[in-house]
Amino acid sequence: MNDADVSKQIQQMVRFIRQEAEEKANEISVSAEEEFNIEKLQLVEAEKKKIRQEYERKERQVEIRKKIEYSMQLNASRIKVLQAQDDVISSMKEAASKELLNVSHHHDDHVYRNLLKDLIVQCLLRLKEPSVLLRCRKDDLHLVENVLDSAAQEYAEKANVDPPEIIVDNQVYLPPGLTHQNSHDLYW
Q1: 171-177: which pairs have CB atoms within 8 A and are 24 or more residues apart?
Q2: What is the rounded CA–CA span in Å between residue 72 and residue 78?
Q3: Cβ distance 174 to 141 under 8 Å?
Q4: What's in the GO CC field (predicted)?
């Protein structure tokens, strides 16, 4: 074998080794590329999952805040309604007390007598008892005694029962009527 053959054979071996090395390098490169893509995909998916979870958490917080805000507005509205109802009731009480003051202090016994009778009938209808103890103001005792029988009879007709026994308490009386000076100190 001469030098040219040896050189040719060495070059052939070098090409073979180089080709093997390039193939191995390509394999390594393709394998590394695949691993990189898999790793990258896993990282991207993990970050997407984190972002979705964070978004869902923030969305829940927004929903909770909306519910709290709605609840607060609803409560504020309810308070306004209750306050308005309270104002109406207060004004009705004041108007009724002024009207009662006018009715009880005027000398029109007929109107006041009818009012007392109607109040007694209304109480009897509420109580629905066969026997009651009635208390009134000392000033109204004679008027109450005058309307007692007709009130008991009217109640009996409305309730479809026998007239109740009504005993007027002569020991304990309701507080005296309001005057114009103390009309704001109601006994309610």
Answers
A1: 172/135, 173/135, 173/136, 173/137, 173/138, 173/141, 174/135, 174/136, 174/137, 175/137, 176/137, 176/138, 176/139, 177/101, 177/104, 177/105, 177/137, 177/139
A2: 10
A3: no
A4: proton-transporting two-sector ATPase complex, catalytic domain
What is the rounded distance in angstroms from the CA atom of residue 131 to the CA atom of residue 167? 8
Nearest to 166 by CA among 134, 138, 127, 118: 134
Q: What is the pLDDT of residues 148-176, one digit of tens each?
A: 999 999 999 999 999 999 999 999 999 88
In the chain, where are the structural domains located?
A: 108-175
Structure tokens at 25: 């390098």
pTM: 0.49
Q: Does domain 108-175 have CATH number 3.40.50.2300?
A: no
Q: Which of 136, 167, 163, 141 is nearest to 152 (CA)?
A: 163
Angstrom distance (rounded) from CA 67 to CA 65 = 5
